[in-house]
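Re: adenosine-5'-diphosphate structure - here you go.
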Amino acid sequence: SPALSIHQAVKTYSNGFTALKGVSFSVQSGEFFGLLGPNGAGKTTLISAMAGLSRLTSGHISICGHDVQREPNITRKLLGVVPQELVFDPFFSVREALLFQSGYFGLHKNDEWIDEIITNLGLADKANTNTRNLSGGMKRRVMVALALVHRPPVIVLDEPTAGVDVELRQNLWQFITRLNKAGHTIILTTHYLEEAQSLCNRIAMLKHGEIVALDSTENLLHAE
Ligand code: ADP
Ligand code: ADP
């Protein structure tokens, strides 16, 4: 089954606004997939539904063949989401935050993988620093690290480079590309076409809650 399958996703918020108007697409295992769209297109709404953080009004989403609504305990383990906001416990050091997150997934011998994440994300110097004392860019790295703790096969990044400096952006892309080559499915939202172009093998364009284009990056660009 596909890494991600979205079937006729509709989301109408309680104020009556419909942010997703019947979105359908699938992402195959191993793809580096871009979800492009301007602000307000519905990208975050869709990610929130994938993560099981909000319910669709109608339609279905499954991760590796498991329905997000019916099997949340399974899909939670299959998915790693890097949200836009920086949210973590301000009293933990970087390493403590990662260990705590491991415990949440029932992983108690995870130190080697945690070391690998810390090193690959350039956090080694900050491993024992309290997360609250980190710069914005470093906090962003911690958010990526937290999403990877349970080695999810499918990784979703919501505008990970928004407001991020050039060095971190390149560092982040190298690491994510490496994860993709190691077999992880990557789904990235962005409103930068160039970013999706250079990284993604397939791109969906979301506008006003609808998919308006979906093709290989090559075909989409030649159609311009
Ligand atoms: P749901 O329909 O999924 O129950 P709600 O409409 O109750 O969601 O809103 C959930 C949260 O989103 C609320 O805390 C609300 O303040 C916030 N919210 C409301 N309008 C917007 C908006 N236009 N953009 C982002 N967040 C919003
Ligand atoms: P994107 O991530 O592509 O910028 P969002 O999914 O955040 O788009 O928002 C899509 C639309 O839904 C926007 O018009 C936004 O104002 C609206 N929206 C988001 N959350 C809520 C909410 N809780 N209640 C009402 N409207 C919302």
